[in-house]
Specification:
single chain; alpha+beta; 6 strands; 46% helix; 12% strand; disulfide bond
């Protein structure tokens, strides 16, 4: 199954290792990252490297990781494509994944993505029902009726099905998680922290370049 068919891309690029040296001796498979065997097709053209962050809006660790990701992405080079994958691991997670894909489809992701995180973690809002989400959307000055209809559409339901299959294919059990080029999984517990996740991702990007 081709990943590019269902994942939303948010700009992108690739980052050279800050040290300029190989970190192969420092980052070990099975210790700092897990290899995906066999590697999964990213669906991207040759020469492109995919980095996917698997997340859930309600996850405090994802919320803490997000500013680091936002600071890291602008440094990525043109051969790297960064994508988000909201994990629909249960009903609430799936509802929040629908928010992400709906905002993306309507072209309002920049207005919704961080604000949705902030509403949950800074303002203590539950946002665990469609009605609560639509109140949030209305308060953002967006068309809640259009948002509701899009959330309920067959297109968004299909995105959730495909996202569920992707999470299963990757073998992901928690968030936040990075998947580099369909070849390797990086988590905070494996890498040693959120900053370290990005450092390992840098190494894996360099390795993917060959």
């Amino acid at each position: 199954m081709k990943r590019r068919e269902f994942m939303g891309a948010l700009g992108g690029a690739g980052l050279l290792l800050a040290t300029g040296t190989s970190l192969a001796a420092e980052y070990r498979e099975g210790q700092h990252y897990r290899a995906i065997q066999p590697p999964l097709d990213t669906g991207l053209e040759d020469g492109k490297i995919q980095v996917v962050e698997i997340f859930w809006y309600g996850c405090p660790h994802c919320y803490e990781f997000e500013p680091k990701v936002q600071a890291w992405k602008p440094g990525l080079a043109d051969d790297v494509q960064f994508e988000y994958l909201p994990a629909p691991m249960n009903d609430v997670w799936a509802l929040h994944a629908r928010v992400y894909y709906t905002a993306e489809k309507l072209g309002v992701l920049d207005e919704v993505h961080q604000a949705f995180y902030d509403a949950i973690h800074d303002q203590g809002r539950q946002l665990r029902s469609e009605s609560a989400i639509l109140r949030f959307i209305n308060q953002r000055g967006l068309d809640a009726d259009e948002f509701r209809e899009t959330m309920r559409s067959d297109a968004i339901r299909q995105r959730i099905v495909e996202a569920t299959e992707a999470v299963q294919d990757y073998g992901v059990g928690g968030v936040p998680t990075l998947v580099v080029n369909g070849e390797a999984i990086v988590s905070a517990s494996m890498a040693g922290g959120h900053d370290e996740m990005l450092e390992v991702a840098d190494y894996l990007i360099e390795r993917a370049r060959g």
